[in-house]
Amino acid sequence: MNLYPLKFYPILKERLWGGTKLGTLLGKELKSDLIGESWELSGVTGDVSIVANGSFKGTALTDLINRFPEEILGKSVLERFGKEFPILIKFIDAQKDLSIQLHPNDELARKRHNSFGKTEMWYIMDADKDAELIIGFKEDISKETYVESLKNDTLTDLLNYENVKEGDAYFIGAGKIHAIGAGVLIAEIQQTSDQTYRVYDYNRKDAQGNLRELHTELSIDAISYVKQDDFKVGYGQEENVSNPMVNCPYFKTNFISLNKNIKLDVSDRDSFTIYMCLDGDVKIANDFGSISIKKGETVLVPAITSHILLNSERAKLLEITI
Question: How many CB atoms lie within 10 A of CB 86?
Fold first, then answer.
């Protein structure tokens, strides 16, 4: 068993609101000027990641998990989620405003879609001047006020807008209305789920001239109408250590800024570890092998690992575990 750090081919997604920053800033090979997402690590049916390095090159993530479930995922992760890879890792380029949307919680998603809900986290990698996110409402509202605003086309008047810059981080719980604004490039960590309720789309039309589907009725009982200022993530930036960012039931995320080589003891972690490179470059090694990655690349370190070596003169990383 040679479960070295695994890199995967990116799965690029063309989007109505996509652009070219995934190519110009993150080095992805784009075949369109409307690439909105790079799925870096996915177990989603129809979009399963394929290993890009080493002896497992060409192997699907799901096949690896079926062969080595506990060794890849960790015993506790396997007990909670089975063999389904529990999180989805993306880079997102919003050249235009995304639709205003929300995601159902686990209970609703299970009942309606036989799926996980969707809680997510964003790290801002790049933002144009005056770029914004929409997160939540600017004040408490009622269900009736929300429904009326959809009828009157005044929903945007109720929403909370946040100016953003590189290095900002946000936690978006299920039920919180949100949208990524034009000019924002993000790293996204989320539950493995594609359940999105689109509630407003600026009356835009797709390539075929059709308005995109809205999920007005589904959203009404899924949305949180209470103003909650709990979305901005504060975190330390001490160098060469794991600085905690988010610790929720679905994932844990740390920020690491490197200017030297470090060794991490992960023998009691009982989870895989994911590294997203935000800047610079780093060589990542475990008990079985190593790989070098640069800005815009992602690596999965299997749970069987006891120690991780991060070798770099300059790098910024997100470290994600369960």
Answer: 20
Instruction: Give all strands of the β-sheet with 169-172 in edge-to-edge order.
Output: 11-19, 35-41, 87-94, 184-191, 120-127, 169-172
- pLDDT tens figures, 19-50: 999 999 999 999 999 999 999 999 999 999 99
- The pair of three-digit structure tokens given for residue 51, joined into one six-digit string: 């290993």
Q: How does pLDDT run across 80-96, given as a tens digit for each residue?
A: 999 999 999 999 999 99
Residue 109's region, left for phi above 0, alpha for psi from -120 to 50, else beta, is alpha
Which residue among the candidates 198, 212, 269, 314 is catalytic per the annotation?
Answer: 198
Residue type for position 305: T
Catalytic status, residue 67 = no
**What pLDDT, in 10s, does the model give residues 268-304?**
999 999 999 999 999 999 999 999 999 999 999 999 9
Buried b (16+ CB within 10 A) or exposed e, 301-319: bbbbbeebbbbbeebbbbb
| pTM of structure | 0.94
- CA–CA dist 225, 237 (Å, integer): 33
The pLDDT assigned to 117 comes to 80
Give me the sign of the Cα torsion angle 124, 322, 239, 237.
positive
∠ at Cα 89 (85, 91), nearest 5°?
Answer: 165
Sole residue written with tokens 């799901």: 62
- Residue pair 195/98 in contact (Cβ under 8 Å)? The answer is no
